[in-house]
Write a structure and sequence with these properties.
Distance between the termini: 11 Å
Number of domains: 1
Shape: rod-shaped
Order of helices and strands: HHHH
Largest sheet: none
Strand content: under 5%
Length: 158
């Protein structure tokens, strides 16, 4: 009689332990899924762009040159401004290409990380969602068998 009661109690405890182990394991797997994500932020565009150099104006009023000399000087300044503007436009195009290439690299890297994470998380999600049904089933079966054995021992002792 006592052996049946002890056997039933051991079976019940073993069943409860298996179910508790599976619940703990499912909780551990779900904690893996709830870890914080790391988001890579690109630097602001202002940090990577260059501004035009400031122009300083000051001093005494210039002497007025003759008109032809003044026109020639203005033509020279216009040509110089055109060269500077073309150089700035070229530098702007190069900066735009570099920034576009960097952004494309960041997007490709983010897509690659998302793909890797998706492949890593799929099995974890399935395992956390299902748990170990086989282990839970055995645990419930052992618990039920322990209850039946203890009930049989109690009935036999009457």
């Amino acid at each position: 009689m006592v052996a049946l009661v002890v056997t039933g109690a051991v079976l019940e405890l073993a069943g409860l332990a298996l179910v508790a182990w599976d619940v703990w394991d499912a909780r551990r797997e779900s904690m893996k899924l709830s870890r914080k994500d790391v988001l890579v932020q690109p630097p602001p565009a202002e940090a990577t762009s260059r501004a035009f150099p400031p122009t300083v104006v000051g001093g005494a009023p210039p002497s007025v040159p003759p008109l032809e000399e003044h026109v020639q000087q203005l033509a020279h300044e216009v040509e110089e401004l055109r060269r500077r503007l073309d150089a700035e436009a070229e530098r702007h195009v190069q900066d735009h290409r570099e920034m576009t290439n960097r952004f494309a690299g960041w997007v490709a890297e983010a897509r690659h990380e998302a793909f890797d994470l998706r492949n890593e998380l799929r099995p974890l999600i399935g395992k956390a969602a299902a748990g170990n049904l086989w282990r839970r089933g055995i645990g419930v079966g052992l618990f039920a068998l322990g209850v039946i054995v203890q009930m049989a021992a109690n009935i036999a002792s009457l």
